[in-house]
Amino acid sequence: MSKPPVPERPLLRGQRVWLRPFEDHDLPDYLAAVNDTEVGGWAGFQLPFTADEVRAWLKKLAEQGRSRTSYVFTVCELGSDAFIGTVWLRDLNFADGHAELAIMMDGRHLGSGWGTDAQRALLTFAFGTLGLHRVELGVNPANLRAQRSYEKVGFRREAVLRSAWTVNGRPADLVIMGILESEFPMPGDG
Questions:
Q1: Percentages of the chain per state (helix, strand, coil), in multiples of 5
Q2: pTM of the predicted model, to two decimals?
Q3: Using one digit for the tens of pLDDT, what is the confidence trace for 38-52?
Q4: Any idea what the Cα angle at residue 178 is, between residues 172 and 179, rounded to 5°?
C-alpha cells in the first residue's frame, strides 16, 4: 500500500475543535502543558522540559511528518487559533494499516469533551484519509478520565502490559486500548 498524498496544511475539523499543524507560537503553551504535573504527568512526562528540548523534539516530529511516519496537530477551539492541546498519530505502519494515537490537552480543557472531539477528528483522518485499519494507544491504568474519553470514541481495552513504563521513578503497568476502522462511525455514516 503506498502512502497517500497529504495537503501542505491539513485542517481537520471536529464538532467543537479543529486540528492544525503545530506552529512556533504554540511552543509556550505546549511547554506549560508538558511541565504541568497533572497534564504532563498523565501523558508520561517525568522530568521538566526546557524550551530548547521541546523545540528539538518538535523538530524531530516535523521530520517524521515529512516522511509520513507521524502527524502531530495542535488542537484549537472552533473559531480560535489558540492552543488547547495536541493530538498525534505516530509509528504509522502503512503496510499493516495501523498507528498509535497520543493526546494531551491543557489543564483548562480536561474533562469537558474537548479531547474526545479531537480524537474523533484525528480518527476520521486516520481511517478516512490515510486508510488505516487499526489505531491503538497506551494509557496509565489510574487515568480513568482518559480511559472514559477513549471509550466514548470507541476504543476497547485490549491488554495490560505489566511494568511497561516508568511512573514517578517506578515500573508501572500500561493499559493498551485499540479501535478498528469497522468500529469507528465515520461522519456521514448512517
A1: 35, 35, 35
A2: 0.83
A3: 655 556 666 677 788
A4: 160
Q: Quick one: pLDDT at residue 45?
A: 60
**Could you tell me if 118 and 85 are in contact, meaning their C-beta atoms sit under 8 angstroms apart?**
yes
The pLDDT tens digits for 144-159 are 888 999 999 999 999 9
In a domain, 57, yes or no: yes
What cell was used for 180? Answer: 478498528
3 state SS of 77 = strand
| Structural domain range at position 59 | 12-132
The grid coordinates listed for 172 are 508501572
CATH code, 57 = 3.40.630.30
Question: In terms of DSSP bridges, do strands 83-93 and 98-105 run parallel, antiparallel, or are they unpaired?
Answer: antiparallel
91 domain residue, yes or no: yes
CB 86 within 8 A of CB 65: no
Flag whether 176 is in a domain: no
**How far is it, in rounded angstroms, from Cα 80 to Cα 73?**
15
User: What residues contact residue 141 under an 8 Å CB cut-off, 6+ apart?
Assistant: 160, 172, 173, 174, 175
Alpha-carbon distance of 69 to 46, in angstroms, equals: 25
Residue pair 159/173 in contact by the 8 Å Cβ criterion:
no
